[in-house]
Design goal:
Length: 133
């Protein structure tokens, strides 16, 4: 899998969703979903894009199990956090509040694990992170 391409493409989708939400809120005059909009743009667009650029700039080994875990926890964590946040704040289906809360918490926890894996990876694969070519 090309980690850079994967992250940049998924980030582009989150950018589109976040921009659409922002324009919809601005046009409608309602800011009720602004926290969800902000998280879609920050963790969905900016973080995933930054991770994609990280893999492009630094030669992290393709076979790294740590990098693979980072990619998938990032992907599922961003999805879980943003969708869980939407479910939690909008409660679109009656009687699902416990599920919505758990979905939100699990998504956020998986994303937190992704960021921890990224921090660990920055030190384990630190020899690849350099200004030298």
């Amino acid at each position: 899998m090309d980690r850079t391409r994967f992250f940049v493409r998924v980030a582009a989708l989150y950018a589109l969703i976040g921009a659409f939400m922002g324009s919809h809120m601005a046009g409608g005059g309602g800011l009720q979903l602004s926290a969800i909009h902000a998280h879609i743009l920050v963790v969905g667009w900016l973080s995933l894009f930054a991770f994609g650029i990280y893999y492009r700039v630094f030669s992290i080994p393709k076979g790294s199990k740590l990098a693979t875990a980072h990619v998938w926890t990032s992907f599922f964590g961003v999805f879980g956090l943003t969708v869980g946040m939407w479910l939690y704040y909008t409660q679109p289906i009656d009687g699902m509040s416990t599920f919505n809360t758990i979905f939100f918490i699990v998504g956020g926890t998986v994303l937190l694990i992704a960021f921890a894996l990224f921090a660990i990876m920055a030190f384990i694969h630190g020899r690849f992170i350099s200004e030298d070519a």
